[in-house]
Amino acid sequence: MIRVLVVDDDFMVAKVHSGYVDRTPNFTVFGSRRPGTAPLPKGLTEQTAELVKAALTDHPEGLSAMECAHATSLSRPSARRYLEHFVETGRAEVRLRYGNTGRPERQYHWRG
């Protein structure tokens, strides 16, 4: 008997897979789990997330969204979306950088 662990981020799909495995001779489901990492939000890609992560880890002093965009050849809004995703998931933090006038600039730091 072959024991199978079903891993899927959608519990309904995992249920379908479990049913299929149970109907297959010599196979049995011994558990069902969600993946260890959450999928990226719609519109974000793994390759670009890795690019932004590399830029942050290469600059321990931190980067603004504009600096990150320049380092990665992304647009500023795209870089900011990835940076904010990292902040929301606890992988990066924001510190404010104060200049002479105007609003403070958000500086992103990788937490690792």
From TrEMBL:
Taxonomy, superkingdom: Bacteria
Domain HTH iclR-type: 55-90
GO terms under biological process: regulation of DNA-templated transcription
Organism lineage: Bacteria, Bacillati, Actinomycetota, Actinomycetes, Pseudonocardiales
Protein name (Swiss-Prot/TrEMBL): Response regulator of citrate/malate metabolism
Pfam family, one: HTH_IclR
Single Gene Ontology MF annotation: DNA binding
